[in-house]
Amino acid sequence: MLTKLETKSSRVKGLSFHSKRPWILASIYSGVIQLWDYRIGTLIDIFDEHDGPVRGVHFHNSQPLFVSGGDDYTIKVWNYKTRRCLFTLLGHLDYIRTVQFHNEYPWIVSAGDDQTVRIWNWQSRTCISLLTGHNHFVMCASFHPKEDLVISASLDQTIRVWDIGALRKKTVSPTEDILRLSEMDTDLFGGVDIVVKYVLEGHDRGVNWAAFHPSLPLIVSGADDRRIKLWRMNDTKAWEVDTLQGHANNVSCVMFHAKQDIIVSNSKDKSIRVWDVSKRICVQTSCREHDRFWVLTSHPEMNLLAAGHDSGMIVFKLERERPAFSVSGDSLYYVKGHFVCFYEFSTQKDNQVIPIRQPGSVNLNQGPRTLSYSPTENAVLICSDMDGGSYELYIVPKGSVGKGDSVQEVMRGNGGSAVFVARNRFAVLDKSNNQVLVKNLKNETLKKSSLPVLGDAIFYAGTGNLLCRAEDRVVIFDLQQRFVLGDLQTPFIRYVVWSNDMESVALLSKHAIIIASKKLVHQCTIHETIHVKSGGWDDNGVFIYTTLNHIKYCLPNGDNGIIRTLDVPLYITKVSHNIIYCLDRDGKNRLISLDATEYVFKLSLIKKRYDHAMSMIRGSKLCGQALIAYLQQKGFPEVALHLVNDERTRFNLAIESGNIQIAVASAKEIDEKDHWYRLGVEALRQGNASIVEYAYQKTKNFERLSFLYLITGNMEKLSKMLKIAEIKNDVMGQFHNALYLGDIHERVKILEDAGHLPLAYVTAAVHGLKEVANTLANKLGENVPSVPNGKVPSLLTPPAPILCSGDWPLLMVLKGIFEGELDGKGNLRQEEEDEASDADWVEDLDISDIDSMGDVVAEIENDEENEGNDEGGWELEDLELLPEGDTPKTTTNSHSSVFIAPTPGMPVTQVWIQKSSLAGEHASAGNFDTAMHLLSRQLGVKNFAPLKSIFIDLYMGSHSYLRAFALAPVIPLAIEKGLSESARPTVRSSPAIVYEFSQLDDKLRTAYKVTTDGKFVEALRLFLNILHIIPLIVVHSRREVDEVKELIIIAKEYVLALKMEVRRKETKDDVVRQQELAAYFTHCNLQTVHLRLSLMNAMTICYKAGNYITAANFARRYLETNPPNENQVRKARQVLQACDRNMRDATELNYDFRNPFVVCGATYVPIYRGQKDLSCPYCCSRFVPAVEGQLCAVCDLSVVGSDASGLLCSLTQMR
């Protein structure tokens, strides 16, 4: 039995597969219905409207509906798209056991404990027929898949088959029945639409289940008499054929397999059994340890089964469906049914070659697992799981292709795996001795070689070489030299696919693909959430692989993508000339055309074959947002720029690639303030002052314009900005511009006009303008401010610009192939290309008449006085600084080769986190959000407050800062581990983590010492600090990982013990609770010295309280530790003697030292062995079930009972 999904919940009473989607419904005894995606193991939705257990559930085969019935006597019809109950059908008077939709008509059949079977029309929402006759609970009822029959099983020990043909005719032509009054009268009194066709009696106890065969006139039933009965029926009667015995308790459910001649049953004896219908024997049994089975269902189209039990459900297959095959050149040999078949790729001819032996065992899942082919000797080697692992060797005679009737003498042997390693040699794995036997075609052993690892399978790895699989690694082993050629740590590998030139290999595990070289040098790893099924290499060296529902590609650098979706799983045999050859589960060859445009283009970029990429761009074969995003991610925004027409996308790509010219053109088309601002920021980064000026003018950002003119030394335009501020009556703008210009007279004048006479006086006096200062002093009178004497004033003068006007000099960069070629495609506007290269970006500000604007101002002021201020003022917001004429263009400095500055590389911090799953490295990079997400997923952490200071320490410890000069910003530097001057600049190592594992050792020793000194609060703080640092620690070996996990347990035990001791000291009035806490303290896993101290403490407290039996126990435990302190030994012996004379306890404690227990970390009560408990996903502290969902009281980080994948603190855990 191959398990595909296993869930945990309350008892599952009903199951139903969706016919098309990978979904399964489970009705739960707790009253909810769960919808699962069994392909990826995800709970999709929960439906909760029933009041009480839900026993039956069923999907409609074509509509987005499902039906459910429960112990609340109701049937509910749901729409899973809208996620709500559409309506409720009422009529049953007791629990409803099963419900089912009809395949064709709008009917639902239901069975209930009211001893009836009812048929409902879900469109009219009425009960159209009531089937009575059973005199006990009806346990199940279902429609025949093809005929007009219903079967029901009851605890009255009978099975009834009902004929619903008349009901179907009434549904098809209801008007005819309406005209028949006599029939209408009979309908009023129960109806004659449905009659009992057969009543099957034979079970000695109540019948729990009965089901039709999907195509044959057979019925199978299971009952409380622990028997399964097989029945046959014809047009007139039904009779018992045979009885299957083997279950040890009541049979809960039984059914025919849709595609095989078998019966599947489950029972309260906690087993699922598979029976051969023809041989009437049990061929497979699968048992659970504690869970009884209740229900069984099968997928309507796929070879999948599901069973519900006391604590959830399982989805499973009975045997593998992957055909065994081997590819050799233009030929494919594969197993189909009872034959080895041959398929020629070039001619697409398919023929049977030779018949093969079928498994003689009565067990399932023992068909051919692998096939190996030797083309020179025309020999086929087939491996299976028969007899614990065996192989069969067939020599295919020449000329037998297409006949398939020649019976060959078969050579057999035992072995876990067998594969050809040379022309006439094959290797067989002997698992018991961990060695490989090399044999010839006569099945004679020629050589034995011990394997370098404990292998459980071998694969072909070139002539004379084997790829040996262990649990966590693979090695390539040279059989001749007995030497390991390569070694690679991997997940458990299922399949191995070599490239055509044998230079690369793909190692396929259940959820990952590892690409490596022929010497097993790791190249990349791809992770998939859905099962990986097969793969093949195409002509370009790209690996094409299939999952359950997709065909995907994997590039040499690890990039992957989807080629197309699949309706059914396929197994790739060969990829050639844009055609994928594959086998389906029925052994049929299929051809799928392959559109390789996307991944060939990406491959060209990776291999720097830009000419080929250019030809694909010219051919306009590329499109899609995913491709544009890929080009951005891989550092080719300039390429993506020429694949889009949307101006906003073009603007974003132009900004990212630094192409200011296209960014200006797009910004003009968009003409939004935000885009002009972003353009100004990018132009300022490149030092292109003219475009910065243009962008600021478009947004009328006068403050930024003034500052730009200041730093570029453009005093002429800065003085014009002063006049604009004066026109706008912007006093602060005037003052700033005057300050930038260094115009003292203007500053004094502005302050005077604004009414700030003291400031104006001080400014004039400090700068030596005596006449102006005297005039202002006269105006101030006695309020003249005093200027400090004896101090040299610091004058506010503008800094001298480093570079006066003009743009920054640009690097001389040759245009790449993309820029040179794509600029000729017409993507740039013609008017931009025709502009002179020496044209200025921005015309001068059109304020030549500002000098004469005073007259205009005076004139307007007079008009305002005369007209009573009817107008709205100057309306200076509409002042146009530039004529809307020609679009400006970048300055090229008269050099056609001058180009944009190179795009900055990826920040070091981004490199750190790109492929890291270590929370400590993410925190060091400053990505606190992703670090918290990782901790939440790995350890269930919810409370991050205790980790805040540690996050900050990690970030500050892995960064440094350099000052260049006064006007430049501080330069941040990321500090890497093991950085050396000889290392290549493109190779980045991991961040330098300030917390080392050795520091935790020092903290632990300090905490031990403080605990010994009795400073429990300080010791508790130290142990908690250790627990808080560990989630963010990074170590470098498996041994250190084990030590970290051991340290978690140590710190957890001490935190729990110390918290109980602190609580005990706070509990002064409750003597009983003090004794209990002291007793629990002694059951924490402590150092021997601390255990002795805790035992002495508990012994003393219990002895004083009169609990002599308990005190004696502590005294004995203390003496068993061989303590060195003679005084304490003497004291313990005296207590033991005194207690032995008076063996009683004055008070009853919640403490039983004879029964093993752990202490709840929240309530501090014992959880004895066998009682239910929960644990913290991080520190593994144990808690009573009532604490579920609360914060762990020990580590103060994680949520009790939450799901978590486990601590990741080393890269070795991810290999």
Automatic annotation (TrEMBL):
InterPro entries: Beta-prop_COPA/B_2nd, Coatomer_alpha_WD-assoc_reg, Coatomer_asu, Coatomer_asu_C, Coatomer_complex_subunit, TPR_COPA_B, WD40/YVTN_repeat-like_dom_sf, WD40_PAC1
WD repeats: 47-88, 89-130, 131-164, 200-241, 244-285
PROSITE patterns reported in the protein's UniProt record: WD_REPEATS_1, WD_REPEATS_2, WD_REPEATS_REGION
Biological process annotations from GO: endoplasmic reticulum to Golgi vesicle-mediated transport; intra-Golgi vesicle-mediated transport; intracellular protein transport; retrograde vesicle-mediated transport, Golgi to endoplasmic reticulum
Domain COPA/B second beta-propeller: 340-584
A Pfam family the protein falls into: TPR_COPA_B
SUPFAM superfamilies in the record: Calcium-dependent phosphotriesterase (SSF63829), WD40 repeat-like (SSF50978)
Subcellular location, principal: cytoplasm
GO molecular function, one term: structural molecule activity
UniProt membrane topology term: Peripheral membrane protein
SMART domains found in the cross-reference section: WD40
Coatomer alpha subunit C-terminal domain mapped to chain residues: 815-1215
Entry keyword Transport: yes
GO CC term, one of those recorded: COPI vesicle coat
Tagged with keyword Transport: yes
Intracellular or extracellular location(s): Cytoplasm; Golgi apparatus membrane; Cytoplasmic vesicle, COPI-coated vesicle membrane
Domain COPA/B TPR: 628-775
PANTHER family in the cross-refs: COATOMER, COATOMER SUBUNIT ALPHA
Function: The coatomer is a cytosolic protein complex that binds to dilysine motifs and reversibly associates with Golgi non-clathrin-coated vesicles, which further mediate biosynthetic protein transport from the ER, via the Golgi up to the trans Golgi network. Coatomer complex is required for budding from Golgi membranes, and is essential for the retrograde Golgi-to-ER transport of dilysine-tagged proteins.
Complex formation: Oligomeric complex that consists of at least the alpha, beta, beta', gamma, delta, epsilon and zeta subunits.
Protein name from the UniProt record: Coatomer subunit alpha
Organism, scientific name: Tetracentron sinense
